[in-house]
Specification:
By secondary structure, the protein is of the alpha+beta class. Helices cover 50% and strands 14% of the residues. It comes from Methylophilus flavus.
């Protein structure tokens, strides 16, 4: 067994992504997006059973985890799925699983 004193850079975002994906409400929010769709907080709240405050919280967790990106345009904030970032984080896990330890 080797002593791990720091987390490798390739793994830096994985924990936050797994936390973000580990909640059923956040999974529902993420799965509500169509391909290349951008949605506002209000649109997401309207299509869920959650309050706007709860949706805002979940969106922050998803964004921090790398599952979503956002952009403020005027008074609205638009969110979209960041599949490239999620795919990279999961690829880092797959690379680890394939390595001979």
């Amino acid at each position: 067994m080797k002593l791990i004193t720091h987390i490798p850079e390739a793994w830096s975002d994985i924990s936050d992504l797994f936390v973000a994906l580990g909640d059923a409400q956040r999974q529902r929010i993420l799965l509500s997006f169509d391909k290349n769709e951008r949605l506002t907080i209000l649109q997401i709240a309207d299509s869920s059973q959650l309050s706007r405050t709860a949706v805002t919280h979940h969106l922050k967790v998803l964004e921090r985890g790398g599952a979503l990106q956002s952009e403020k345009i005027g008074r609205e904030v638009y969110f979209w799925v960041d599949k490239d970032r999620m795919q990279q984080a999961l690829q880092n896990v797959m690379t680890y699983l394939k390595e001979d330890i």
